Amino acid sequence: MSGESKKLLRLFRGLSEARQQALLEYAAFLAARDEAEGLNVVPQEPLPIPRPEQESVVKAIQRLMASYPMLDRNKLLNDTSAQMTRHLIHGVPALEVIDELEIIFRRHYEVRLEESSKETQ
Q1: N or C: which end of the chain has fewer CB within 10 A?
Q2: Strand, helix or coil for residue 79
Q3: For the CA atoms of 36, 76, 2, 5, what is the dihedral angle to 10 degrees?
Q4: What is the mean pLDDT of each run of 10 residues along the chain (121 residues)?
Q5: In whole angstroms, what is the distance from residue 43 CA to residue 21 CA?
Q6: What is the domain extent for residue 87?
Q7: Are 108 and 68 in contact (CB under 8 A)?
């Protein structure tokens, strides 16, 4: 979580319940306004960035981050770091690690979809 996010959360927690609700409504208003104006809209579907034939693990992570901009990078850090360690320390071939990274990103995306559908119900 960024410093600004932590500050916002701390301020939010210090508000009364009524003011917390008002802040949430205002944030939703601003988000809807940005969306209507086409500003800062994060795609909700993965972007179709093709996988090149020759790709390093680092480049694959960068490509997958760009392909899945809606995912929280902090939630992916542990999994991506583990795959990088498998490659660099344990000598697992890049192709195998990249295949696993593709699965990891897809799984995180599917979890996000499930969480979003539960929130809308």
Answers
A1: C
A2: helix
A3: 50
A4: 81 89 80 67 84 94 93 93 96 97 97 84 67
A5: 27
A6: 57-120
A7: yes
For residues 66 and 101, membership in a common domain is answered with yes
Provide the b/e sequence for 33-52 (b: ≥16 CB within 10 Å): eeeeeeeeeeeeebeeeeee
Q: Within this chain, do residues 80 and 116 fall inside the same structural domain, yes or no?
A: yes
Token pair for 31: 């988000």
Query: Cα(42)–Cα(4) distance, rounded to whole angstroms?
Result: 19
Closest CA to 45 of 102, 99, 106, 98: 106
Q: Do residues 65 and 106 both lie within one domain?
A: yes
97 contacts 87 by C-beta, under 8 angstroms? yes
One domain for residues 64 and 107:
yes
Tokens 């996988």 sit on residue:
51
**Entry pTM:** 0.66
CB-facing half-sphere around the CA of 78: CA atoms within 13 A: 2
Q: Specify the DSSP element, H or E, that contains 12.
A: helix 3-13
